[in-house]
Design a protein that fits this description.
By secondary structure, this protein is an alpha+beta fold. The chain has three helices and nine strands. Strands 1, 4, 5, 8 and 9 form a five-stranded antiparallel sheet that branches. It has a four-stranded antiparallel sheet with strand order 3-2-6-7, with helices on one face. Helix 2 runs antiparallel to helix 3. The longest helix has 24 residues.
């Protein structure tokens, strides 16, 4: 068995969401590992989770041109790999948010809901031996399910009187099939996360960087 490290470690602010020019960004990060191991001690089979709460990159606000270090507690997963007939799949899904007034417990509940949805999606693909690329239609369906789960949690918060909700600044996956578990591989990760208005104008833009690294 080898070891796979999945991590994102830097967030660069290209354009801020806040009209005042400073954002308080935070991330949702999911690790993805498909091998013979049951990666999570809880009910999840292929999805790894981390701290998703607002403030997970620190509470200080940043402006365009500034950066945030992503703590290991948020963006790093390291696991021993037990390959499936000498291959396995590793990946990551990153959501970026700009914090306003959504309660931390609401976002944590929504994050957990999305982890369950993602894991069910992966389990279905594995059970039908679909280890290749996800089609645009499949990705759209998964995104719709996650969006519905997030919206449902936020609607519950309406009862608490919260009006200025956290803004999503995009989500992007990166998945790699390691076809020979005896060979070391590494892949740079770069996510360009953008939120836009209906007319196409960019509201906010963050870049997240990291690496996917396997050592036999």
């Amino acid at each position: 068995m080898g070891r796979l490290v999945i991590e994102v470690n830097r967030l660069d602010v290209i354009k801020t969401d806040d009209p005042g020019g400073r954002d308080e960004p935070y991330l949702w990060v999911y690790g993805i590992i498909i091998d013979e191991n049951d990666q999570d001690p809880g009910p999840l089979r292929f999805v790894l989770t981390s701290d998703p709460r607002p403030g997970n990159l620190g509470s200080s606000k940043v402006k365009a041109g500034e950066s945030k270090v992503i703590p290991a507690s948020v963006g790093r997963f390291s696991r021993e790999i037990n390959p499936i007939i000498n291959l396995f799949v590793g990946g990551i899904l990153v959501f970026a948010w700009e914090h306003d007034n959504t309660p931390a417990q609401t976002m944590k509940a929504a994050y957990d809901d999305c982890a369950t949805i993602l894991d069910a999606f992966l389990q279905q693909r594995v059970s039908t031996l679909q280890l290749g690329a996800v089609t645009p239609e499949q990705q759209a369906a998964l995104q719709a399910d996650m969006t519905a789960a997030i919206t449902a949690r936020i609607k519950q918060t309406l009862k608490l009187g919260t009006l200025n909700f956290d803004d999503n600044v995009g989500a992007e996956p990166a998945v790699h099939v390691f076809r020979d578990a005896s060979v070391a591989e590494s892949q740079a990760l770069s996510f360009n996360l953008v939120s836009k208005r209906s007319n196409g104008r960019v509201i906010a833009n963050y870049r997240v960087r990291g690496e996917l690294r396997y050592t036999p």
